[in-house]
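Let us walk through a complete example step by step. Step one is to write down the protein sequence. Step two is to encode the small molecule, NAP, as a SMILES string so that its atoms and bonds are unambiguous. Step three, shown after the inputs, is the structure prediction itself.
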Amino acid sequence: MQYIKFTKDGLNISPLGFGCMRFPVIDKDLSNIDEKKAEEMLKYAIDNGLNYIDTAYNYHGGNSEKFLGKVLSKGLRDKVYLATKNPVWLVEKYEDFEKLLDEQLERLQTDHIDFYLLHSLYDKTYEKIINLDVFKFIDEAKKKGKIKYSGFSFHDRLPLFKRIVDAYPWDFCQIQLNFMDRHYQAGLEGLKYAHSKGLGVIIMEPIKGGKLANASDDVKRIWSESKIERNPAEWALRWVFNHEEVSIVLSGMSTIEQVKENIELVSNTLRNTLTDEELQLIDRVTDLYNQKVKVGCTSCEYCQPCPSNVAIPDIFEMYNNMYVYDTVDQSKKSYSKLMESSKDAFNCIECGQCEDICPQHLEIISLLKEAHRELI
Ligand SMILES: NC(=O)c1ccc[n+]([C@@H]2O[C@H](COP(=O)([O-])OP(=O)(O)OC[C@H]3O[C@@H](n4cnc5c(N)ncnc54)[C@H](OP(=O)(O)O)[C@@H]3O)[C@@H](O)[C@H]2O)c1
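Step three: the predicted structure of the complex.
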């Protein structure tokens, strides 16, 4: 593992971080982590030099932090830098910031968080927490030793991103970036901006939540033109790592094989290693995907649970798959199963709760209607 220097103190950190949002689960129940498999994955990663672990209050229905706490308490806490995030959408008054942080420390069985983020800032949450004196909370939490470095994760537009970067002496930020999202949210311009202001930049969703790992035949044909054979996930990761402004890339891994592959990938530095020819190949794949994608959902599950039980990410996945991966019959079959369990789009009562929390700011209500028309 080639470590990078991170923060003003020059901490040695692995360029690959473990994203604890995609652990294997039992019976497709996201809150039911398959602890045996997930522990094996974490231990393998730590034993092989990975030392940055990213979780959040809400991952796996709140069980990601609890599970991590259990695993790290087995003598692993001092081997890693632990990152988690304040669920700012739950904060209603100043005291709530610290109350949530204390709950997280308890869940994680630790007395401090190394990297603490304000989770998923966008215009509404940002204005709210500014009014609630959030920077005072961060300063105090640092003074008390409960957090070491502060940052924020972001899912809104570039102008707000720049405003937040400039508002406080952050140590780092976390943005969504992959070759399909170069100009989406903070995007490449945000990456360069934050870097130029001295922030470490951590990348989430480098494989677009796994979507870029499953290439259709026409995409595979383009990849196969490369002199070096690589699988689609590796192409996606390499594109992100190639940027010199990127500090750490978080990968949400759901199998031990993925952990092994991704750790192997970062055994050498990947900065500025893609050739012009390879970059052109990636551009061609990007163009091809762009022509096909119908809904930019990343299956982050923030919209779940839906009050009407509508399986929003599943529906969009079926809809996209139809177009991107040509799975018309399969998508329609899966959708009819959803209808049997009353989780299809027809059950939407248009309350808008999903649109308020969606980090991608999708117009979910109208997109659900569109998807329903095509999937029945
Ligand atoms: N702060 C925020 O608002 C926010 C939002 C999103 C994510 N995050 C954080 O960022 C982390 C990374 O985001 P992400 O989980 O969306 O990352 P990602 O790397 O874009 O997607 C993860 C998925 O990629 C696939 N994958 C990973 N390695 C692979 C490999 N070697 N070969 C084939 N497929 C592979 C797996 O899909 P399958 O499971 O389908 O095999 C995995 O579940 C999250 O885990 C979380 O910690 C934060």
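Step four is interpretation. Residues 133 and 154 are 19 Å apart (CA to CA).
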